[in-house]
Every structure is written in C-alpha cells, then in structure tokens.
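tl;dr need the bound structure. longer version: we got a ligand (GEK) that a collaborator sent over and nobodys looked at where it sits. i said id run it. heres the input, straight from their email, havent touched it
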Amino acid sequence: MANPKDEVYSRPMPSIEAFRFDQSVADVFQDMIERSVPGYGLVLQLIGVLAEKYGQPGTRVYDLGCSLGASTLQLRRHLPDGCHVVGVDNSEAMVSRCTANLSRDHSAASYEILLEDLRETNIENASIVILNFTLQFVPDEERKNILARICEGLNVGGILLLAEKVKFENSSEQALMTTLHHDFKKQHGYSDLEISQKRAALENVLIPNTEEQHRQRMHDAGFSVVEQCMRCLNFSTFLGIK
Ligand code: GEK
C-alpha cells in the first residue's frame, strides 16, 4: 500500500504556525521526508552499512529523533547479534507510529522506543549513535553539549552518524543550493505554495549550521576522526569516530 501523501501545506493558510511534529505530520511523514530531503534513502542505506561494520555485540545503539523508525529499522536489520537498539523521539505521535512499525519487524536485535527529549537521554556503552536530520531541530546553543555527551557515552572506536540540512557562507552558493532544493521538491510533486508555506513554518524551527561548524563541533566534542561521507545539495552527512 502506498504511503499517505503529504498535503499538510497544500491549501492556502491565513497564518503559518511554527512547524510541529504532530499527528498530521506523523501520519504522512514517510512521504514528506522522501519527497523533501534529497539523498534521504541513501543515508538510510549507509546506516545499514555502518551498523554492520561498527555495531559491537554487548553494546547499545541509539537512534536519536527516530520519527517513524526508518533508521531504527535499518539498524535492527544490519547489526551483529547482541546489540540493543534504543530509539528516542519527543513527539508522541511519532513514537506511537514508530512502536507499531517496529512491532511488525522481526529482526533479532532487542529494542526499546522511548518518548523522551534526546537532551535527557542517557548515552552509555554505545557503539553507534545516529542523529539523522535531528540535531537541526535542537536549540543551536545546546548542540555542542549534546555532541560532547554522545562522544562521552560512546566506547572507543564507536561512531556518530550526523546528517543535517546545511547552510553556506557564500551567498551565491546558498542561493543556488536553495533553488535546486526547491526544484527537487517541485519535481517530486510539491507546489510553489506548499514549498513557501512549509519554508515559513520551518523558519525558526529548523536552524541549519555550516559544514565547517559541524566539523569543528564534532572535533571539539572529542571525535578523533571526522569525515563527510555524503552530500546532496544542501544536505550533508558526517561520520565521527571516537
Ligand atoms: C529518520 N531520524 O527518518 N528530542 C527528541 N526528538 C526530537 C527532538 C528532541 N529534542 N527534537 C526533534 N525531535 C528520522 C528523521 S525527523 C527529520 C528525523 C525531519 C524529533 C522530531 O520529533 C522528529 O521526529 C525528528 O526529531 C526529526 O531517519 O523532519 O527533517
């Protein structure tokens, strides 16, 4: 059965409220993210590759901001035996759908899905932490501490996968990437109205950093290796190894 279509911003709205991960978004989220984030499917595949390579038996693996569980499922399907998967999201609507999705998956890895703010999540004995398009929604000034706590909770050799929408210092690069991203969305069926209303809703909610800020922050947090492993337009993915 096809995923329900995202039409959240399809009709003109008299005023645009700040974007929230509520029931109406959770209901259509898979379609929304697939048609909005170039490279999303490839990042999910990459998570599977990393799970197989870096998952350590007897450790915990965290998916922070797990939404409907797309990354969580990739982890469960590709981790070696003996890992415990922890999915975390602070949206009730997401957690309830995620729990239902995970219950239909019969991979061996044990798991729990927590309704929790990731800023409260206790990270310990971890071999993998995933922040797949989540850090961008956390207040900018708190991101440094979050990465430091993640690095502290990882075992040596453990990894962080960080995928984010990014911005560019150079204004022509910023303008070109923004235009191409909107073209990508149009080609995936979004109208100009949907694109502009969603953009307004995300204005003070999704705050992007530059790639340099991400690299620096990961180094400062204690990762000894920081590599950009993917970029599609204004969406970048970094791998940090402790
Ligand atoms: C995927 N990773 O499909 N604590 C916990 N969850 C949060 C917080 C927070 N402080 N802030 C936001 N979220 C997923 C996609 S979506 C990305 C991640 C997007 C959650 C929020 O409720 C939402 O479910 C998720 O982070 C971001 O692989 O919408 O672009």
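gonna send this back to them w/ a short note. The chain has eight helices and eight strands.
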